[in-house]
Design a protein that fits this description.
single chain, alpha/beta, Transcription Regulator spoIIAA, 5 strands, globular
Length: 191
């Protein structure tokens, strides 16, 4: 199960039946928890819808692996993007939370830019690290979350459990922002 629509169209009882049939993990592209950002990217969901889907899966006993895209708010709306995302995760935490960095192939970039309806400025590495730091500092999930930021697109690989490892992760981010930990070179990043 990979789409939000799949979760929303099924009752908790139907999801439990899928679990009984062997489904244990659901992948969900959260992208952002900020409804205005979700509208800009044409996600077809709001923060409330995403929270409902996450909670429905949790009630059914399914694990959810959710992904968030750093940089999705651009320079203008990055704070709104991160604050909304933290709010969503604090409301309805997935089992696993991963962050990726925004990267677009040429064909997707054109559609993305049209959907923005305003000039979009991509975040640089320093701004992405600031987003990651803000996200981690705001996360207070009511149940443990396994956090990963180790996708090939990420400039800095991070891994831990929240909230337990928050301070260590923030210290690693701080060291990277100060230049003490090298970032993955751009030519080695993939999408």
């Amino acid at each position: 199960m990979r789409r939000l629509k799949n979760l929303l169209e099924k009752s908790v009882a139907e999801l439990r039946a899928l679990k009984a049939a062997g489904l244990t993990l659901v992948y969900l592209g959260i992208e952002s928890g900020a409804t205005p950002i979700l509208k800009k990217i044409r996600k077809g969901a709001s923060q409330k819808t995403l929270a409902g889907a996450l909670e429905r899966a949790f009630e059914a006993g399914l694990k959810v692996s959710g992904t968030v895209i750093l940089g999705l708010g651009g320079r203008a709306d990055w704070r709104q993007h991160i604050e909304g995302t933290a709010e969503l995760v604090n409301l309805a935490p997935p089992t696993y939370l991963s962050t990726l960095e925004l990267g677009l192939e040429d064909i997707a970039a054109a559609d993305f830019m049209v959907a923005q309806k305003a000039p979009f400025q991509f975040q640089d590495d320093a701004a992405i690290l600031a987003e990651q730091a803000l996200l981690l500092s705001l996360l207070e999930p009511p149940r443990p979350v396994i956090f990963r930021s180790n996708h090939a697109s990420n400039s800095l690989a991070l891994a831990g459990n929240l909230p337990r490892d928050r301070e260590r992760l923030l210290a690693e981010l701080s060291a990277a922002r100060a230049g003490a930990i090298p970032l993955r070179p751009r030519f080695l990043r993939g999408f």
